[in-house]
Amino acid sequence: MKKYIEDMFDEAIKAHKEFALDHAGIIEEIAKTIAECFENGNKLLIFGNGGSAADAQHIAAEFASRFVMERPPLAAVALTTDTSLLTAVGNDYSFDEVFEKQVSALANSGDVVWGISTSGNSENVIRGLKRAIKCEAKTIGFAGKDGGKMPGLCDKILIVDHQSTARIQEIHIMSAHIICGLIDEIMFGRFSG
């Protein structure tokens, strides 16, 4: 078992290092896009399914509460948390519409809508991003493998070209944490003003 544990850590470390070498630029661009959104008084809407739903909630909490530094709360909402709304839309319409309906109700021009899908093909995420475009919001995507259907729908997209869902999700949350830290520094720290 010890060998298995060591192998998993080695695989994860290798995937993170290779990803960082090629994707630091897009992580920086995403951070600047979200920081500009917040600085202009707009909001961030985030969504995904399964582990990506948990990531959406995690990321929203880092912004609306705090990440590392003490600073004012930032307007971020995970569209994965209202069980009454999710089940109403799923029951009355379709699970494919759970994010689309919320984006339609909440997104405005200047907001950022962030969809997360390890396959890049989750229909409810795709529909949420399409609705965001109609609402004139900026779109960000976190995807895996080849990005699936998401690249054409996102102003900025981070694609983890890996076959392991676990590695994709780990790199997504690490990248999100880096983005949170960068935004804190852009707005309130060493990169501000």
TrEMBL record:
PROSITE patterns: SIS. Its main location: cytoplasm. Coiled coil: none annotated. It is found in: Cytoplasm. It holds the Pfam family SIS_2. GO terms for biological process: carbohydrate metabolic process; D-glycero-D-manno-heptose 7-phosphate biosynthetic process. Binds 1 zinc ion per subunit. It catalyses: 2 D-sedoheptulose 7-phosphate = D-glycero-alpha-D-manno-heptose 7-phosphate + D-glycero-beta-D-manno-heptose 7-phosphate. Pathway: Carbohydrate biosynthesis; D-glycero-D-manno-heptose 7-phosphate biosynthesis; D-glycero-alpha-D-manno-heptose 7-phosphate and D-glycero-beta-D-manno-heptose 7-phosphate from sedoheptulose 7-phosphate: step 1/1. It comes from the Bacteria. Zn(2+) binds at H58, E62, Q169, H177. Its EC number is 5.3.1.28. Catalyzes the isomerization of sedoheptulose 7-phosphate in D-glycero-D-manno-heptose 7-phosphate. The reaction produces a racemic mixture of D-glycero-alpha-D-manno-heptose 7-phosphate and D-glycero-beta-D-manno-heptose 7-phosphate. Belongs to the SIS family. GmhA subfamily. This is Phosphoheptose isomerase.
